[in-house]
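ok so heres the complex, two chains, lmk if somethin looks off
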Amino acid sequence: AQRVTQPEKLLSVFKGAPVELKCNYSYSGSPELFWYVQYSRQRLQLLLRHISRESIKGFTADLNKGETSFHLKKPFAQEEDSAMYYCALNSGGSNYKLTFGKGTLLTVNP
Amino acid sequence: DVKVTQSSRYLVKRTGEKVFLECVQDMDHENMFWYRQDPGLGLRLIYFSYDVKMKEKGDIPEGYSVSREKKERFSLILESASTNQTSMYLCASSFWRGLEKLFFGSGTQLSVL
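and the predicted structre for the whole thing:
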């Protein structure tokens, strides 16, 4: 069964510090991985996806199949990055389901 | 912009009541989903649908049912509400095979007393 683990419920950093939100997955096939973000009083929205290898709002995430990880990183955190972050996994094929992790609440302090 | 609209932002119901949560999307998406969001538990999939009148169980379907009579509308039904169904309910939609981007509604906070 597929599983997504975000080991940190809460993460607090200071503005300008590097930030890394951890995500590990369990899936035997070729996964598709995503990061979703929910800012205060806003809808949950896609931040980035591994297939695009993109950088959004300064965030990047690299899929490491050897370590089954998809950690989200930003070199210099900003206060507006404070939000709930969810890692999500799609096992592909005809499976339409996204499996979400439990989320990490990031707080960036001034 | 894609709009996924959930009919109620807040809902208060009594134990045993039948509850309907409505979701409408305006982008002709094939896939629609219902999740519940609980602190410390993340998002858990209740049901999803990839076509009109088609539905499949998610990870926690017990106590829920769904209806999709029209492509744009996906309803979540709590047959007999219980206090452990107090939660934030999120509806989402996507193009078929477009699972890389789910569009979410703003959520319905349901309280069952």
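quick notes: The longest strand of chain A covers residues 83-90. thats all i got rn
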